[in-house]
Amino acid sequence: MKLNWGTGIVISIIAFMSFIMYFVITMSTKQGYNHDLVTEKYYQKELDFQQNIEATKNAKRLKNNITINKSKEGLIINFPKDFDYKKIKGKMFLYRPSNKQLDFEIPLSLSNTYLLVPENRLLGGRWNITISWQYKGRNYLFKEELIY
Question: Where are the beta strands (DSSP E) in 64-103?
């Protein structure tokens, strides 16, 4: 049997379509290719977005905002010194984009003007830090990306 141009084009189109279908089915069904959302409660977070904008504006208006320093013990999160640290309430969320099992949240209970995140909780790599805190009825939000 002799192949002509038409037969060759049809065979190559069928082979290409078969490859694409195999690739799509493999990527959608195999457990090794995990397609997690950034957050499980995506729509709820979207509704809270305006409150986050206001809290971020409040934080940017501060003379001294939160600062983060690395040390041998871990991360030191310094709160503004002109605030009474005993009246600061809130939580800190550390998000690891590459692995959601490493994410954790710490409630803010300060015994000084700083908070120490122990080094054993942090692996090397990129972290997104979100600190949501209140002081005298006003909400503040601090976000930063860092490489530890």
Answer: 67-70, 74-78, 89-95
